[in-house]
Amino acid sequence: MKSNTFCRERTARRLLSVLLMLVITVFSVLPAAAEEGAAEAASYADPAVMPSNATEGWPKAADTVSDFVCVMDAGTGAILCEKGMDVETPPASLTKIMTTLVAIENGDLDAQVTMTETGVGYAVSGSSNLYTQVGEVFTLRDMLYGTMLKSANDIATQVGEFVGGGSLDTFLSMMNERAAQLGCTGTNFANACGMPNEEHHSTAHDLALISREALKNSLFREIVHTKQYTIPATNLTDSRTFENHHKFLVTDEYAYDGIIGGKTGYTDLAGSCLATYVERGGRTVICIALHSMGMDNCLQDTRRLCDYGLDEFENVPAPVGEGELISGGMLTLPKGASAEECDVASVTETREDGYEETTSVYSWHGREVGTAVTEKPPVTSEPESVPESAAESAASGTVSEPEPAIPTAGAADSAEGHFSGAGSSQTVLMDEIVLPVIGPVGLVPLFLIVMLILILIIMVLIVIIIRRRR
Questions:
Q1: Which residue, among 63, 68, 370, 75, has the nearest Cα to 211 in the 3D structure?
Q2: pTM confidence score
Q3: Residue 172 has pLDDT above 70, yes or no
Q4: Structure confidence at residue 340 (pLDDT)
Q5: DSSP of 252-297
Q6: pLDDT for 95-154, tens place per residue?
C-alpha cells in the first residue's frame, strides 16, 4: 500500500512539474504575442499624423519618412491618404510641372525660342541645367523635354519668359492664376524652376491638383513617360541627350509596374521631393511626397503609397439622379464598399441657357470620394386644360367629395422596411462594439489566457487528490 501511495504521489509530482513548465511557457509567450500585436499596430501611421487612418473602414496606410504626403485618385480627385498635405513648403523642381502645363496650354510648341540673359542666368554651377548660351535657339517642344526630364533651370526659366510674351513676371502671374483656378490654396510661384525663394511655396495637396490637371494633357503624359530624349544640335552647340530622373521609369532596381512618370526635386531647404503617376487596371493614382531625407527614402515611401492607392481601392459608378451626366460620375471607394453607403450633398443652379445644373458631392464615412455634375433641359410649361367632367360639375353647381383613402400593401411594406432598418442598426452596433474586442490582434492572447486558466484548475485538482490520498 505504501509503495502504491508513493508511486501515485511521484506521478502526481511529475504531472505538477509538467504543468508548471506549461505555465512558464504560457507566460513567456504572452509578452511576445503582445509585442507582435503592438508591432502590427505600429506599422500604421498615427491618425493624428495621417488623418485618413482615423476613418472607420478606410484602409490604413503606413507612416512615411517624407513629412508631407498626398495620394489622390486622378479620375475622381478623391484623396486616399494624406500627411500634412496642406502645409506650405518649398516644392523644389516639382514647380516645373506647372511651368510645363502653362506652356503647353499657352505656347506654340514649334516656335523658335532664343535664350536670353534671363534664362542663362540660371545656368549656374551646382544646379541642374543645360549650360545654354545667350543667342542659342531651341524649339519650345524640345525645351519642355529639357524642363521635365533634365530638370534644367535655365531652360524652364526661358520657357517662362517666352510664353509670358517676353516677361517672366507675366508668366509667373499665369502660373499663380492657373493654380487658383485648380483650387490650390497654399501655392505661390516666385520663379519658373523651383530655385529657393522665401515667397516660393506650395503644398502636397496643391501639387496633386496641378498634376491631375496636367495628366489630362496627352503631350504632358508623353513627356513624363519618356525615358531618354535628344535635343538636336542648335545654332551654337552639338546635340544633347539626357535621361529621365525618375528611377521608377529608368532603373531595374526601382522599376514599377504601371509607371507613367513624374518629377524629381531637391534643394537643401525642400529636401528630396517626388511626384509620381502610376496606372493600373484603368485607374491612375497620383503620389506626392515632399521634404524627405534622401531620394531613396522618398522612393520607398512612394512605392508603398502607390501600392496602397492601387491595391486597396476601386472606382465604381455613382448613383446619379435625374438629368444627363456631363462630368464626374465615378467614386473611389475601399474595395468591397458600396456606392449606396455614400452621403450625397447636391446644389442645383439654373444656367443662362435655362438648363438646371446639379453638382453632387459624394462622401463615404465623412471622406469625399467623388462628384457628379448633371444637367436637365428647361421645363416648358403648357396651360392646364380643365377636364370636361370638372367643367360640367362646375356648371351644375355639384361638388364631388373625395373618396376615403384605403391602406395599401405598400404602406405595410414601408412599415416592415422601417422595422428591418432598426434590426440593421443593431447589427451595425454589434459590428462596431463586439468585433474589435475579439479581433485578429486579440485572439491569440485570449486563447493563451483560457489555456492558462485550464492548466491552473487541473493543478489545483491534482493537489487536492494528493492530499486526500494521504
A1: 75
A2: 0.73
A3: yes
A4: 95
A5: SSS--TTEEEEEEEEETTTEEEEEEEEEETTEEEEEEEEEESSHHH
A6: 999 999 999 999 999 999 999 999 999 988 888 999 999 999 999 999 999 999 999 999
Predicted pLDDT of residue 321? 81
Distance (Å, rounded) from C-alpha 423 to C-alpha 433?
A: 16
Where exactly are the structural domains of the chain? 68-311, 316-376
DSSP string, 329-394: -EEEEETT--GGG-EEEEEEEE-TTS-EEEEEEEEETTEEEEEEEEEEPPPPP-PPPPPHHHHHHH
- Is residue 16 within 8 A of residue 24, CB to CB? The reply is no
C-alpha grid cell, residue 419: 422595422
CATH 3.40.710.10 at 68-311, yes or no: yes
CB 292 within 8 A of CB 272: yes
Beta strand segments in 140-258, E: 228-231, 240-243
- Rounded-to-integer distance, Cα 305 and Cα 64, Å: 9
| C-beta of residue 236 within 8 angstroms of C-beta of residue 136 | yes
**Could you say which DSSP state residue 201 is in?**
B
Least confident among 22-36, 80-94, 138-152, 249-263: 22-36
Which stretch of DSSP H or E encloses residue 460? helix 440-469
22 — pLDDT class (breaks 50, 70, 90): low
Q: Which residue has the cell 530655385?
A: 195
